[in-house]
Amino acid sequence: MAAFLTVLFAFSLFSQTVLADDLEDARQLRMGITVQTNEIPDWPQGPAIGAEGAILMEAKTGAILYAKNIDEKLYPASTTKIMTGLLAYENAKLDDEVVFSYDAVHSVSRGDSNIGMDAGEMIPMNKALEGMMILSANEVANGIAETVGGTMDGFVQMMNDKAAEIGCTNTHFTNPNGLHDENHYTTCRDLALIAKYYFSYDYLAGLSREPSCKFEKTPTQPDEFQLNTKNMLVKGKKYEYEYLLGSKTGYTSEARQTLVSAAKKDGMELICVIMKEESPYQFEDTVALFQYGFENFKRVNIADNQQEENFLNAGFFGVGQDIFGSNKSILNVDPTAFVILPKNGDFAEVEYDLSYQETGKNSKIAKVAYTYHGNLVGVAALNMNAEDATLFAQFAKEDELTDAEGSGEEISPANSENASEESSEEDSSKKPTTNLNNNGIFINIKRVLIGLGAVAIVSVLGFSVYGFIKDRKARKRRRNIVKRSRDRRRGDDY
Question: Given 78, 113, 208, 329, which residue is catalytic?
Answer without folding.
Answer: 78
